[in-house]
């Protein structure tokens, strides 16, 4: 019988924190490079742009707190799962309704997959 490879919940939370940190840090630190890579015009309202990057960075910080403080983990997971699902819906809506590049469906799908993966980490949930 083959040995199963499983990740501990702490490692999954750390991977999620790193992913959300990178996904929020790149637009926050390199906005013009990211927009030129995606062939997009700079936004008229930079506040919304930095709000999205800030939410991703806050989610990364929350996931790191969930690793260190296990009693807060259920609430933090609920918040991060909800924010990822909201991000999925908003991205899919705006990609469909406007002329945003189709490559942005990648982060949208990733948000849904992170929600599904993190949902399985709720305490007391059967695998």
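^ Assign residues to that structure.
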């Amino acid at each position: 019988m083959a040995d199963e490879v499983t990740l501990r919940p702490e490692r999954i939370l750390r991977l999620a924190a790193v992913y959300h940190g990178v996904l929020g840090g790149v637009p926050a630190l390199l906005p013009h490079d990211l927009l030129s890579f995606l062939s997009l015009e700079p936004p008229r309202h930079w506040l919304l742009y930095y709000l999205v990057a800030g939410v991703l960075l806050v989610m990364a910080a929350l996931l790191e707190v969930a690793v260190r403080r296990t009693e807060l983990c259920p609430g933090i997971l609920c918040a991060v799962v909800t924010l990822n699902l909201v991000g999925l819906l908003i991205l899919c809506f705006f990609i469909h309704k406007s002329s945003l590049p189709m490559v942005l469906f990648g982060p949208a799908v990733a948000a849904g997959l992170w929600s599904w993966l993190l949902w399985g980490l709720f305490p007391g949930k059967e695998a």
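The mean pLDDT is 89.
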